[in-house]
Amino acid sequence: MKTKTRILMVDDNPALLEVISKLLRSEGYEVATAPTGLEGLWLTRRWLPDLVLLDVQLPDLDGFEVCRQIKADPALLDVFVIMLSGQATSASEKAGGLDTGADEYLTKPIAAEELFARIRTAARLRHTTAALRASEQHYRRLVEILPDAVGLLDAQGRLTAANPQALSMLGYAEAGLLLGKSAFELAPPEEQERFRADLALALRTGVLQNVQYTLLRKDGRRFPVEISVAVPSEGRGQPSGLVVVVRDITERKRTEEELRRLPRRIIEAQEAERQRVARDLHDGVNQIIASAKMRLRKVESSIALINPAATQVLARCYELLVQALE
Hints:
By secondary structure, the chain is α/β, with parallel strands linked by helices. It folds into three domains: 6-143, Rossmann fold (3-Layer(aba) Sandwich); 147-248, Beta-Lactamase (2-Layer Sandwich); 255-325, no CATH class. The protein has helices at 14-26, 37-47, 63-72, 91-99, 112-145, 164-170, 189-205, 250-303, 308-325, and strands at residues 6-10, 30-34, 51-55, 80-85, 104-107, 149-154, 159-162, 207-216, 222-230, 241-248. The strands form two sheets. It has a five-stranded parallel sheet with strand order 2-1-3-4-5, with helices on both faces. Helix 2 runs parallel beside helix 3 (63-72) and helix 8 (250-303) runs antiparallel to helix 9. The longest helix has 54 residues, at 250-303. The chain is rod-shaped, with a radius of gyration of 43 Å. The model has no long low-confidence stretch (mean pLDDT 84).
């Protein structure tokens, strides 16, 4: 459901407040009024209007100071201010009003048609500006919570912005120590030309995906990364910069190396098991068989004359034990 545009009118002329506020309500606006600068500031902070129509000459704070305080308040960034005056109408006074942050400066008297047209234009601008700021804040929050490092590079490859993950990944305590550096300085010398060529390619084609490099931490240590690059769309003309997403792939590389070593480790484990079995046979079963063979030979010699048939059976058993040992 579309909400009405909120307009706060701050003016010390009661008759003018009544007439203009009625006209604005008849046009579908939600209107509040304040006769002084202090009350206007209080209502602005409490009611959060979309637009403030602010008279310059007020009995307490003048419109310049009211506008300055509105624009200095982070909670009121999306409030548009139109200053109006029938006395402070010189070029320098208008410039002074605009310097305080006013979005428009109008001279009284002003025809109702023109005032409403200006208000409609200001409302559209305010809506667009608020939507852009909300979108920017949304994407900034997303970038800040991403697990990957995200940075902005200008067309020359210098870092102009970086999220906290980028600072942590590269080992910098604060953004001021990193911003302004050339991205190419963050790569070892042998990879800088390839990095430069790939970024130039991204500027021409608009994208670069999942390319692996080595980067340098602040202390000089190297680590492997995977980089993707996108060029923001800004209409026609040369792109002004690049968005770079960097993923630390140290753990992935370690896992890949472990997987490469796994077949060799399996073979080594199999060979070790063979050797263990051989030792067990040599030290255990073989000794038992050898002992049985010697005892069998003694029995055979002692009954050779008594029972020739048994001697043959014992001889066959002896042969079988020899085969087992072999």
